[in-house]
Amino acid sequence: MAAFKANPGGTLGIGSIFGRDKLAKLAWEQLDQQSIQMTAERRIGKTSLIRKMCKEAPSGWVPVLQDLEKIHTASDFSKSVFEKVEDYLSKKEKFANKARQWLSEMGGAEVGGVFKMPKLEATSWKALLTHTIHDLVEGQYPDRLVFFWDELPYMLQGIGKRDGQDTAMEVLDVLRAIRHEHHEGFRMVVTGSIGLHHVISTLKSQGYSNEPVNDLYHLEVPPLEPEDARELARALILGEGLIVTDMTESITAIAEAADNVPFYIHHIVKHLKIHHQQKADVAAITKSVETQLRDANDPWELRHYRDRLKTYYPNDEKVALAILDAQATADAPQSVDQLFEAVKSQETFTDRDHLLDLLRMMDQDHYLKRTADGYQFRFPLIGRWWRMDRALS
Amino acid sequence: MNKLAADPRPAITDRTHLSRFTPSLMPLETLEAIFVQREDLAVDTVDRIRESAVTENKHHLLFVGPRGCGKTHFTSLVTGRVNRIDDLDDQLRVAWLNEDETSTSFVDFQLRVYRALCKEYPEEFPEEELSPLFDLSPEDAAEKLSGMIVKKLECRTALIVVENLDSVFDGLAKEGQHEWRAFLQEHPHFAILATAQQLSEAISDRESPFFGFFQIDHFLPLSIDEATRLLTRIAELQLDTDLASFLRTPTGRSRVRALYHLSGGNHRVFIILSEFIDRETLDELIGPFEKMLDELTPYYQERLRWLSPLQRKIVEHLCGCLRPVPVKEIARVLFTSNQSIATQLKDLREKGYVQSNTRGRESLYELKEPLMRMAMELKENRGEPIRLIVDFLRIWYDQDQLEYWLLSLSSNRTREFNHLSAAVAEMGEETSDPVLQAILEDIEQYEQANDQQALIKASEELADRRSRVEDWIKLSYLYFGNERLSEALASMDRISDDMVSEANTENKTVGHIWKYRGYLALQLGDYVRSLDSFDRAIEVDSEDPVAWSGRSGSLVLLERQEEALEAIDNAIALAPTEASYLKDRAVTLLTLDRHDDALIAFERSMEADNGDVETRMLHGLAHLKVGHHEAAIKSLGDAIRLDPTHGDARLWHVLAIIHSGQWEYGIESLKLALLECVELSSESNFIFSAFPGVIFENTQAPVAWYKRAAQLLDCFSEANRLAEIGEGLVQSLDSIPSWMHTAKSLESWLDVWKEAGRVYGKLSVALRMFETGIHYLQTGDRATLLDLNIEERAILEQVFGLEEAPS
């Protein structure tokens, strides 16, 4: 039986990543057809899923994980892709010939077995990226390489700031063109802590009119299934040596209190270890959750749900607030008309269509989810925290 | 403190050195010896690091707390423990980054990591391999160096130990932070053990790369108990057993409390003060104290220089404030707007210079580091006595000691004279006693929070310090409320006659003191003492019925029933309608076998009370004793009607029914009583011992005995109370009627219970003891008891009144 210590925010080994087998399998099946845009609320476990996929790739796939947050220019991006492809091909005793040839023309040279990159002009990145992927597609057979690009939206923001928004737009377009050109041979999984739709929205506000990711399969990473969440809680209770009188009752209470989100499950168990004399009975769990939700240090990092409204909806912050307040105080899902009435009572607001757009955005941003009966908080835990934080009765 | 003539302590110069600012220089043994407050956290942290080393799970731990709160001590101790885990040798590499180096880029940071690894593991991470990197661009060097580190680690985990993570992040800036995080994400071979003075934006802002990355624990200041423990540990380390013992006394604790009020719960302050609390001579004290402050001053002056002029003025102002102050007050004295001061204070708070507390809507500010105030005071001092030293003298030494030093000073020792005379001048007045003020403030706080344990400790110190009659009484009440009766009585014993007369205590209070002492002694089973105390209360006021009643109670328990009756009569004469006295009189008469008088007395008592269950039960018992079975059933029934859950009344009611000849009804009543009455009094054992005998009622046929015994045991078994009847059976051995005392009858009696109890495993021990007891009754030979083990034997010896074991 698995047993390990709670590790909220830390790096988890594959054996400690629970309940993602089905999702990983689905992702690999989908990758056979098309590239993937992976989305999830922060702390749901995207990075763990990526790590698991990389470690347990099916035969025939070669995953390459790159955290792109360190890259701030399109040129650096191309170079880093080139280096990864060269590294991959060299293991097959091949080279990225076309790219190398192009780089040599630009002044690059091999010195002592290491290819020394030339100084590239600002616009040269496109050629390097295109040639590199071409070499990859040519040389990878019989395997297929798949890039896992974490924090792509952050890199695009950085490129926008450093190289200009036009270049950021071009990166998206070039990547889309490559996917079209090498429909069978090139695959990528992109993800990031900032929603890609926000980056694209910003670019659109600067005149960008393409749909650069509509060919990607949209894979939403949900919280764990309740059974997996309970098993994770069990492994952590055992790993921390907590005292339980009824294991089933305790793991159920933890999983439910955490909305089956692994990050919160880890937090609850660690808090029980440190602050509740290692007791994990239902009363201690309830108290622990209550304490953490009220903690001024915000250990569960929930305050950003309030703070980011301004960034996500710069012109509609107050309307979004009114929607969430109304939702938090309601006992049942709220219809669009009910929310419209609630917003009108708080704000001068008359545009129902605009409300529909905003609700769609809030759904994408994991605040709300639409059910047959109307909208409700995506995560009941967030609704509970919202009520506490906003002192709503 | 009185020191022993042969002082086992090493000389001051030979004592274990405790580093004030660099605990990492101290050996692990020293760090362990003085480690307090965070024991569990240290164990937990080592466990997490171990898991990081031996599994793919990597923990990133961040401990946050102000300067001097023990962060480096904790880090050194944890790292030291980790380094001593042999089986991690092949799996873990520790890179403790040099705190004094700065990283302004990711490559700088990686160089620090490599150098730290090189320092500990030079063969695996050779210094010379760094040289070629300096010919590359920073980006390429970072890439290459990162690759080198990862490659050299092979499959091992690196524990990166980073102090002042907040300033490392400041140096790295956003770009460097992203590079570091990307590196950690791509190469999951690293665990982090970091400390920071506060949660900077780089950690707490959602947009920052390390948001949510760390498991964060906040270090709290020491509590008074923890500070006392720290000083005690240091004293033990320095082999100063006298001081260690002294610190455990209320006097020692109260002085630590006062130091705590002076300096807050800052670990470093207590480490520094620990150097001075055991000084025996003036030469060891004032000069070295000044020197210590003098050595600290440049450090704090330097820290002030980093601030803007207005921020410096704010900090300097706060140095002179002993209490937190509001923004508007600072703004007023610095002739600046509230808004400007608030902005600067926010910045100072982020830099770790000040901390804020809220009172209502107001924010109050104070220095985060008490040492800064103390050190800066020296700079401002210009020859005047230093407040900290004066306060320290007043807190840590008695007035006698200070006066002795003052008188024995030679004329040229002006500094010492100034400090001592300032301290002595302020002593003697209660309002200026810092120890007393500290205790009183804390007591108020503990009372509000209803923190009983802390309240007891502070009250002990108050009584010890001020030694007023009311202090000891209050302390005794606290003990009593927390079921610490011996200590409650001991506190009352500290009230001497002199103390009472000096305080001009009212007679009423003096009487109360004696009665309360008597009551406590009674509760503790010391009846001679309780009698003496109640007699003293009667001496104070011979017309106090409570004192007479107490005297009577003590006499009853001393089995001096006639005198007890006289005493309770006196009480009744003074308070004729007091039902409890009337009841006590009835009970006393009962013990004198004056049953008729007792019955009349019970009736009088019941007329005066408002339905007292116990009186009715005892009334029933009195009837039972004289064979008035119907009347007994009625009285006991009255008691049960008043409280159906009263176990004793229910059981006596059953016995009365059986004695009245209604066996089957009695058995049914017993079943219900046992099932419905979970709580029984301490008398219940006695009641259970009466049950075995009831099977004789109206029959002498062993067959009938067996049937009844089986019925009885069945009742107790159904109610899961076999243990009680087992005990009752053993206890009943001394009340077997004399007509049964023939070998044959006793054998039959034994057979009855053995046969009836055979099916109940839970009765086996009781039956074995019962059998041995019967054998003893048959033979009169004490040696038969040797069939039992020592504990069981002791029980039977008590039952048969065999007080002393044969030699």
Features:
heterodimer, A: 393 residues, alpha/beta, Rossmann fold, Helicase, Ruva Protein, domain 3, Arc Repressor Mutant, subunit A, 3 domains, 5-stranded parallel sheet, two-stranded antiparallel sheet, 18 helices, B: 807 residues, mainly alpha, 3-stranded antiparallel sheet, 40 helices, 8 strands
Short description:
The complex is a heterodimer of chains A (393) and B (807). By secondary structure, chain A is of the alpha/beta class.
Description:
The complex is a heterodimer of chains A (393) and B (807). Chain A has a five-stranded parallel sheet, covered by helices on one side. In chain A, strands 3-4 form a two-stranded antiparallel ribbon. Chain A folds into three domains: 20-220, Rossmann fold; 226-294, Orthogonal Bundle (Helicase, Ruva Protein, domain 3), CATH 1.10.8; 304-389, Winged helix-like DNA-binding domain superfamily/Winged helix DNA-binding domain (Arc Repressor Mutant, subunit A, Orthogonal Bundle). Chain A contains 18 helices and nine strands. Chain A has 393 residues and is α/β, with parallel strands linked by helices. In chain A, helix 10 runs parallel beside helix 12 (282-294) and helix 11 (262-275) packs across helix 12 (282-294). In chain A, 53% of the residues lie in helices and 10% in strands. Chain B has 807 residues and is mostly helical. Chain B contains 40 helices and eight strands. Chain B has a five-stranded parallel sheet. The A-B interface holds A 4-5, 7-16, 42-43, 47, 51, 65-70, 72, 76, 150-151, 154, 239, 263, 270, 273-274, 297, 299, 301, 304, 307-308 and B 40-41, 44, 47-48, 51, 55-60, 106, 139, 175, 178-179, 181-186, 188, 191, 199, 206, 209, 211-218.
